[in-house]
Each structure stands twice: as structure tokens, then as C-alpha cells.
Amino acid sequence: MAISDIISGVNQSIDALNRTNPLSQTAQSQFKADGFALPASFSADGTGLPSSKVASYRDSQLKRNIITWFVPEFGIVRMYVNPSSISYIHKKAIDKARTKGGYTLQYWGEELSQLNIAGTTGGAGIEGINVLYEIYRAEQYAFDGTALSLAANNASQPNLLNSLIGNTGDSPSLLGGIVGGVSGSISTLLGQDSPNTALVANSINSLAQLAFTVEMYYNGWVYRGFFENMTINEKADNFLLEYNMVFTVTQRRGYRLNYFPWSKSAVDGPSQYTSPQSFSGSVTPGTNL
Questions:
Q1: For residue 286, what are the domain limits?
Q2: Bridge partners of residue 114, in order along the sequence
Q3: Rounded to an integer, what distance in angstroms lies between the CA atom of residue 191 and that of residue 157?
Q4: Are residues 249 and 269 part of one domain?
Q5: Residues 199-229: pLDDT tens digits?
Q6: Does residue 148 fall inside a structural domain?
Q7: Is 0.90 surpassed by the pTM of this model?
Q8: Domain-located, residue 116
Q9: What are the pLDDT digits (tens) for 123-166?
Q10: Which has the closest alpha carbon to 91: 107, 76, 104?
Q11: 17 with 37: CB under 8 angstroms?
Q12: Sign of CA pseudo-dihedral 50, 51, 57, 63
């Protein structure tokens, strides 16, 4: 199959999703450029909340909604099976103080949201746990290559102590050594290989940057953040391996919409038999749309 045919097929798939969740032309181009297709991020425009912009009787599509992780320096990792449960914890930062005249309130915005992800690896067993544990501490694996590069670079640079004790001519000169040492140390820290090379600062990913940029993709939502803890429970009664992961969110993108064929519009009238469906076509439970 030609590359042009593959690209055309991908574009057609994204266009079909765009018809389900209308996007502006600019947004469509951006999503194609990024390589990910996300539903439109509706916004409040003074005529209603974002949810009021979601249309009913949308074109349906059959797909598997499974959690996918983006791990810095490694790429995409798909879960073997979805978690049994995900708790979405949102909290606002409000300080309350009681005074003689009543309560005073200070609003500081929203706290960082948290995802409490719990489940079992099912038939994947301990190898499934290995995958999740490696996602949990992926920044350590990602930094191994950087650490080796830094060690090799430091080994090729002048020793810091020798630079500080440097010589001038045939006899030691403390002042000359200090001046030369400070100059050499600064050059080493900023990435200068020798006095004749241009001063170029090294740009490396820190452990924090690698740890804070993990992303979770699930059914239209993209969460960026970091893991705080992970608990593994090995059970002898059914030989299943259970896990619980706490993921703190620093950014959320996308917009999640209904995905069951029997779901109804939440904004087009009260719940009753004649309420508009979210999707067009057959809405009989168990029937593929």
C-alpha cells in the first residue's frame, strides 16, 4: 500500500470523527498535525455552558475505548485491560476563617485534580504489573541514557580540583589557579569543551520534567501529570494481581462524550421515552451501530 493511500485513510478517519464532533478548520489541521484525534473542546460563550453545545443524533462509530499512556522518551503504551474503576477527585482551594463578624473566605482557584486508578491485570498477571510499574517510574528509565551521557562528558572534562590548583609556568600560583579554575569550572558547567570552542549550554531533560509530563488518553480526555504512589496487592484466593495508582493532574485537554448506543442527550429536554438519542441509527442495547 502506498504511503499516500495510508495518509488518505487516516485523514478520512479523522474527518469522520470531526463530523461526529464538529471542529473548526484550524482545529482539524492542528489535530492532524499532532497525530491525535480528539473531540472538540467546547467553551462557554455567554449563551450557555459548554455541555449545551453538544449535538444530539450524532453519527456513531464502533471502537474500543482503552486507556493509552504517553511516556516521555519511550512513546505510546497501551494497557492490557482497562482499570476496574477510576475515581476523578476535584477540589477547590478555599481558605475559611471565622471572625467576630462572620466567616471570611479566600478563593485561590482549583487544586490539582487527582485520578485514583484501581484494577487488576487479569490474564496479563505479573507481566501486566511490570508494564504498569515501569510506566509509574518511567522517568528513572528515561534518565539512564542522560546519566550515562553526563558521566561520559564529565570524564572528558578537566578535574575540578586540578583546575582550582592550576599552575602558572613552572611554579604553582594560587591566584592564577583560582582564576583559571573558576573559568574552567564555569566553562565545564555550561558545556564548553575547550577554551577555543563556542560557549554552548547543555539542554537536558531533568528527572522532574520527565516525571511531570506523563499523559493518559481515554475516550476523548487527555490528562497530563505525574504519579504520586502505586500499591500492588497479590491475592492467593484467586491469584489475581490488583493495583492502585494515584495520578495527579496538571492539565486536562479534550472533551468526553457519550459512547453507549442507548445514551440520550442531557440538554435536549427531561429524561423520558421520547428524549433525543446521542447517536443516530439503531439504539437497541447490544446492537452495533
A1: 258-289
A2: 89, 248
A3: 10
A4: no
A5: 444 567 788 889 999 999 988 889 999 999 9
A6: yes
A7: no
A8: yes
A9: 889 999 999 999 999 999 888 877 777 777 776 665 554 554 55
A10: 107
A11: yes
A12: positive
